[in-house]
Each structure stands twice: as C-alpha cells, then as structure tokens.
Amino acid sequence: MHQLDRYDKAILTLLQADGRMSNQDLADAIGLSPSPCLRRVKVLEEAGLITGYRALVDAKKLGFSLMALIYISMDQHTPERFASFEAAVSAIPEVLECLLITGQQADYQLKVIVADMDGYQELLLNRITRIKGVTGVHTSFVLRRVVDKTQVPV
C-alpha cells in the first residue's frame, strides 16, 4: 500500500472533486510549487491510485430517465460461468455497474440505465435473460438518488 502524506491526500481529495483543476491551481491549493505538485500527481497515477479522469454527464438530458437495479441468479457457480456472464454484461452499454454479491438470493447486482420502460423491457428480455446461465431476475426501480458520489474518502 502506498503511504500517503498530507499533500497526497489533499491532491486526491481535490482531483476527485475537480479532475480538470490545473496543476497551478492544485499546487496553490495544497501549498506546493507546481513542479513538485505535478511530480506527486504522476507518482499517484503510476502507483495506480489515480486510475483516470472522466466527465460526469447528465443522463436525463441524454434521454436516460429510468434506472434499475437488477438482481441476477446463475444456474452454476463456476469460474467459467461467471466469466462468461461478466464478459456478456460488460458488452451491454446500458449496464453501468455489475457487482458479484453475497447475502442475497442473487449472484450479481446490475445497475442499468434506459430511456423508459420499453427500453427496460428490451434490455431485459432480449439481452440479459438470454445470457447463458441466467436463471432468475429480480428488478428494483430507482425512484430517486439520495446519495450519488464518485469520491472515495481519503
């Protein structure tokens, strides 16, 4: 595990809040000059602590107004069956997240986003339930996002 000092923690916190922050602004905010600040960012990237930079978009403005959590049960609990399922759902653009879970009567939880109920029906019936090994599906629809974070506490 990478040992983080106060500068590293501040860099991670600030970049999670604003990944487009300039190096000069970042350096000013944490009290370093630009060169050592940039070196620290590069070290954090090389260590795999910073894995990338992304734009967050408004799904509703793109026409995606229905989010659902889909719980999937599999017929076999083998590495091959799981790998096949995971490859299949990774190729579906509407799948935002796929989690292998315990403590439920399901093996996976998918977070999906679609335009409407017709889009959900098409996704479920024509793609997800056709994946080899899927034996059970239970869906919960998201009414409202109460907490929606991307930042990891540092």
Automatic annotation (TrEMBL):
Keywords associated with the record:
DNA-binding, Transcription, Transcription regulation
The HTH asnC-type domain sits at 4-65
Q: Which Gene Ontology cellular component annotation is one that this UniProt entry carries?
A: cytosol
Instruction: Report the protein name in the record.
Output: Lrp/AsnC family transcriptional regulator
GO MF terms held by the record: sequence-specific DNA binding
Q: Which PANTHER family match?
A: LEUCINE-RESPONSIVE REGULATORY PROTEIN, TRANSCRIPTIONAL REGULATOR AZLB
Q: Which InterPro entries does this chain map to?
A: ArsR-like_HTH, AsnC-type_HTH_dom, Dimeric_a/b-barrel, Tscrpt_reg_AsnC-like, Tscrpt_reg_AsnC/Lrp_C, Tscrpt_reg_HTH_AsnC-type_CS, WH-like_DNA-bd_sf, WH_DNA-bd_sf
Give the originating organism: Limnobacter thiooxidans
- Gene3D superfamilies cross-referenced by the UniProt entry: 3.30.70.920, Winged helix-like DNA-binding domain superfamily/Winged helix DNA-binding domain
Which one GO biological process term can you cite for this protein? response to amino acid
